[in-house]
Amino acid sequence: MKIQNPIIRGFYPDPSICEAEGKYYIACSSFQFFPGVPIFESEDLINWKQVANALTRTSQVELHQIPSSGGVFAPTLRYHNGTFYMVTNNNTFGKNFYISTKDIRGEWSEPIFVDQEGIDPSLLFDNGKVYFTSNGSDENGKGCILQCEIDIETGEKLTESIPVWSGSGGRYLESPHLYHIGDWYYMMAAEGGTEYGHMITYARSKNPFGPFEGYEKNPVLTNRNLGGNENRIQGIGHGDLICDAQGNYYIVCLGFRQCGEWSPYHHLGREVFMAPVSWNEDGWFVAGNNGIVTEHMDVALTGEQNTKIYDVSFPVKEDDMLRFSYLRDYRKENYEFTETGLRMRGTKITLEEADTPTFVGVRQSEFDTKLTVKVSGEAKEAGVTVYMDESQHYDLAVIKEGKERKVILKICTGDAKAVNGEFVLPEGTESVELSVKSEPERYHFYCVAEGDEKLLGSARAKYLSSEVAGGFTGVLMGLYAIDREENWAEFTELCWKQGVEE
Q1: Confidence check: pLDDT of 205 > 80
Q2: One domain for residues 369 and 474
Q3: Which long-range contacts (CB under 8 A, 24 or more apart) does 210-219 make?
Q4: CA 217 to chain centre
Q5: Do 325 and 281 belong to one domain?
Q6: Which residues are catalytic?
Q7: Confidence (pLDDT) at 228
Q8: Which residues of 184-218 are buried (b: 16+ CB within 10 A; e: fewer)?
Q9: Distance between CA atoms of 246 and 312, rounded to whole angstroms?
Q10: 31 and 110 belong to one structural domain
Q11: How far is 333 from 486, CA to CA, in rounded Å?
């Protein structure tokens, strides 16, 4: 059958995959957003549904006032003897740790830390031993893959951390995963940086600590030489191997969709793609369509892919709540979900601060979207934000100044901040409908007043892209409230459809 990539759409980078009792699970990075490390489940490797978040307590992860694109970097998800293990890194503090659970939908343990440098940590359970692998540097400061053996109960290192592979020569060697398949240990990694030069490489050895021999045709998977109308999918890298019940192998990896054929920007974030793997007689593997990832790929799977786009509306279903994200610290007392909508208590913290504003968002997963919501309440400022980080976001807000209410469009792109549109609401207006419509390269902002839809302005998507904003995240579309006196805003009649065709 043919699958359509990406298999998980929107800002869900750095996928790691495992199989447990006939089902498959993927974990992804979350950076400064809480809860951390979203986890998806599938019965067929094709259709995925979020079923959990691994980091749900502040005791598990410190996110207080961390910079954007700091916090929780790439996880690795593994299953061994009835227990799930998720190992990751809080890059802001340079700490690698893992947590565990027997119920992936339930609570995870408190973190156990491992004293090894680097990011993108990984685990291999093999013949009674547990190998801990991460990127790092050798005694000369050159990038390498570091590895040690640990006690999984305590995180104590049982061997020294030693360099085991230096990659194929690309910059930013990262994302190591060690596998024991047949007679060989395979070390798969990413090189080139998680940008347009990203690639997946690998090596093999008969010993888990090497020496490793690199695949002579590295990279095994990359889209780095494609452009224009050849393929809008770029940044392929950071992969993890999985074997299905029939013995077929696949790589799940990150990539991104640029805005247009000749528009080299991406603002939806890095997403989850999948490519088939096949093995040569001599024990090396190849991947993708001649080493590249395309939108549609032939795979040895059966089933029907559900291409329905994820939508959000009030009242929010319990399963949908898993997709809601907050910024850094989660202050539960500022949010009240009701049968008709959401009440949010504003604070003095604004969206321009690397802090914890009253904000709840969902990752934008399609270029074409339409979001509408009614806003009321006493908060001085409340509305909708198209949010990349504290320096790049577009806000459509209801402003309350004495008895007057107005709707404004605020544009924040780095050091440039401006009000690009304003409409004074008729006296006595209690609530107002706000609307955001997006296309691949632009957002359009409206309010509905006196029965008419009024365009307040438009803004380019490229200013919210990673190429302009920097960082490793993607756009979230969300609701927010600001009020120094901590008054409440009310949001009702939310309807957000992604993949809209007007």
Answers
A1: yes
A2: yes
A3: 210/164, 210/165, 212/164, 212/165, 212/185, 212/187, 214/165, 214/167, 214/168, 215/168, 215/284, 217/286, 217/291, 218/168, 219/168, 219/170, 219/191, 219/192, 219/291
A4: 30
A5: no
A6: 14, 174
A7: 66
A8: ebbbbbbbbebbbbbbbbbbbbeebbbebebbeeb
A9: 36
A10: yes
A11: 11
Say which residue the tokens 């030489």 belong to: 225
CATH code, domain carrying 332: 2.60.120.200
Q: What is the pLDDT of residue 59?
A: 95
Strand partners, 131: 124, 149
Interval 326-385: pLDDT, tens: 999 999 999 999 988 999 999 999 999 999 999 999 999 999 999 999 999 999 999 999
Q: Is 318 helix (H, G, I), strand (E, B) or coil?
A: helix
- The pTM of the full predicted model, rounded to 2 decimals, is 0.96
Pairing relationship of beta strands 432-438 and 416-424 according to DSSP bridges: unpaired
**Same-domain pairing of 367 and 452:** yes
Q: Domain tally for the chain?
A: 2
The answer for residues whose C-beta is within 8 angstroms of residue 433's C-beta and 6 or more apart is 372, 373, 374, 375, 447, 448, 493
At 467, which amino acid appears?
A: E
What pLDDT does 89 receive?
Answer: 95
Whether residue 281 is predicted with pLDDT greater than 60 in this model: the reply is yes
Residue 303, in any domain of the structure: no
Q: Which DSSP letter does residue 436 get?
A: E
Interstrand relation of 369-377 and 488-498 (parallel, antiparallel or unpaired): antiparallel
CB 30 within 8 A of CB 71: yes
CA 463/CA 483 separation, integer angstroms = 27
Which H or E run includes 468? helix 466-469
Domain boundary among 298, 323, 351: 298
Same domain? 346 vs 277:
no
Task: Please tell me whether residues 255 and 316 are part of one structural domain.
Answer: no
CA atoms within 13 A on the CB side of 197: 8
Full domain range(s) for residue 335 = 312-498
- Strands (E) located in 156-289: 162-165, 174-181, 184-191, 199-205, 213-214, 233-243, 249-257, 271-279, 285-287
